[in-house]
Amino acid sequence: TAVTIGSKTIGEDAFRKNNITKVILKNTVESVGESAFYGGRADETGNEITELKIEDTIENPSQLTTMGSHVFSDNAIEGTLTIPGAVEEIGKYAFSHNNISGILVIPRSVEYIRSDAFYDNPITEVIIKNTEENVSIDGAFPSTANITYNPNYIE
């Protein structure tokens, strides 16, 4: 099942364990609550999200500022992930236990990335478009990922 959502706020547990495989968050979404798209443990029936798209263009920038704890954890999100330029906080375990891989770019707007936000993903490199003093990463990334702070990074 695929869902496209444009509500300003997506509440806690809103789509938890609903057999969802694809999520599109429109640029009008401002916050996604705790466990909103939580997938569930392997022994449970739940979401199996493999594709996540967050709309964010120069003409229509994303309004998303907050992503709660466990928001997309325990799914199967594959490939690279783009965090929109308005996001300020990524909750603990937000994207843990997925298949997010390659390079993850964290925009300058992000101030807090809570513990284990990207735990158990095959991410090889994290580029944080800020200085080390201006963002708290709180053990958020896999220990195998190379983390670089580069405020001048251009994608």
Description:
With 155 residues, the protein is mainly beta. Helices cover 0% and strands 26% of the residues. It has no helices and 13 strands. The strands form four sheets. Strands 2-4-6-8-11 form a five-stranded parallel β-sheet, with no helix packed on it. The protein has a three-stranded parallel β-sheet with strand order 1-3-5, with no helix packed on it. The chain is globular, with a radius of gyration of 14 Å. The chain starts with a strand and ends in a 6-residue tail after the last strand.
Features:
single chain, mainly beta, 5-stranded parallel beta sheet, 13 strands, about 0% helix
Low-confidence stretches: none
Report the radius of gyration as a whole number of Å.
14 Å
Q: What fraction strand?
A: 25-35%
Order of helices and strands: EEEEEEEEEEEEE
* Class inferred from helices and paired strands: mainly beta
* Helix share, percent: under 10%
Largest sheet: 5 strands, parallel
Write the layout of secondary structure elements.
Elements lengths: L1 E4 L3 E2 L11 E4 L5 E2 L18 E4 L11 E2 L10 E2 L9 E2 L8 E2 L1 E5 L5 E2 L9 E6 L17 E4 L6
